């Protein structure tokens, strides 16, 4: 039950973060959004890590998962925010949500059994991703970056999938704060500091609440994900990918976004596939 609750809690947090980031990335750029989010997260998590000290189970194996967790999440964020600058939340979020399927496949490769029903759900998701990236000629004239945005979202899904699985492995072996730390640490030292040194770290008054909200949501999201992953990485990862539904509904209500018919079918298939996969894994 904790795996399900952890995944759903993470989905709500990630969905809120996606909505906030879609607006802030258009104000200050995707790189600056990631930079500030990582710094805010690090300032929250680092004191907890320092107070807890170095865990006894920290070794070579957990160190590798820490590195993969940090790199997968940071690279994924950079790519998805680049996509959000040129594409709609209601298209990017459902494609990115296939990160749960990627993490589930990695879990299967690591020894977890995936049945026929789960394989069918994954196929539905793949078909949905393809359809969601199809842009009609008339839509392409008004929004000629749609294919590029869909491809960026798909690449981010792969990075996030690796990051999710790695975070789950860290959460199983180490305290929750250590599972949240890698991406914040990597993002701060490889994104925030270089941008600041080159005087390219942007910030505006309008972006302040959006960036702060995104940073907080990411920290809470990964914390509850790590707790859930202790009771089943694949289940928690797939359920966490439901953030797409949260972001899509939020974009419809708040931003009045619309999709073409073919894209709508694709998005629907992705969401149905993710929901079915979640039910099967649960």
- Please state the average pLDDT score: 81
CA radius of gyration is: 18 Å
> Could you tell me the number of beta strands?
0
Taken as a percent bin, the fraction of beta residues is under 5%
* Main sheet characteristics: none
Task: Outline the low-pLDDT stretches.
Answer: 135-143
> What percent of the residues sit in helical stretches (DSSP H or I)?
over 70%
Please indicate the count of domains: 1
Cα end-to-end separation: 8 Å
Described by the principal axes of the CA atoms, the overall outline is globular
Q: Which structural class matches the secondary elements?
A: mainly alpha
Which series of helices and strands comes N to C? HHHHHHHHHHHHH
Number of helices: 13
What's the layout of helices and strands?
Elements: H1 2-28, H2 30-52, H3 60-86, H4 89-96, H5 99-109, H6 116-132, H7 137-142, H8 146-173, H9 176-197, H10 208-229, H11 233-240, H12 243-255, H13 261-281
Helix pairs in contact: 1-2, 1-3, 1-10, 1-11, 1-12, 2-3, 2-9, 2-10, 3-8, 3-9, 4-8, 4-12, 4-13, 5-8, 5-11, 6-13, 8-9, 8-10, 9-10, 11-13
């Amino acid at each position: 039950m904790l795996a399900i609750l952890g995944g759903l809690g993470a989905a709500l947090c990630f969905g809120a973060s996606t909505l906030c980031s879609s607006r802030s990335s258009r104000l200050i750029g995707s790189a600056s959004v990631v930079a500030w989010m990582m710094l805010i997260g690090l300032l929250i998590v680092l004191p907890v890590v320092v107070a807890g000290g170095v865990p006894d189970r920290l070794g070579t194996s957990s160190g590798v998962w820490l590195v993969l967790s940090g790199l997968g999440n940071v690279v994924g964020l950079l790519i998805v925010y680049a996509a959000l600058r040129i594409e709609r939340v209601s298209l990017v979020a459902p494609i990115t949500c296939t990160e749960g399927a990627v993490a589930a496949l990695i879990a299967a490769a690591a020894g977890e059994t995936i049945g026929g029903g789960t394989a069918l759900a994954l196929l539905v998701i793949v078909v949905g991703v393809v359809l969601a990236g199809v842009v009609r000629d008339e839509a392409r004239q008004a929004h000629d970056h749609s294919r590029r945005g869909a491809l960026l979202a798909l690449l981010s899904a792969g990075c996030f999938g690796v990051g999710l699985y790695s975070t789950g492995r860290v959460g199983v072996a180490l305290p929750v704060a250590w599972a949240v730390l890698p991406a914040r640490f990597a993002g701060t030292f490889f994104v925030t500091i270089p941008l600041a040194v080159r005087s390219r770290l942007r910030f505006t008054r309008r972006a302040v609440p959006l960036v702060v909200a995104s940073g907080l949501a990411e920290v809470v999201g990964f914390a509850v994900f790590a707790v859930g992953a202790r009771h089943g990485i694949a289940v928690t990862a797939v359920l966490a990918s439901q953030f797409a539904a949260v972001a899509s509904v939020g974009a419809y209500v708040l931003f009045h976004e619309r999709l073409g018919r073919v894209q709508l079918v694709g998005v629907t298939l992705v969401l149905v596939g993710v929901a079915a996969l979640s039910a099967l894994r649960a």
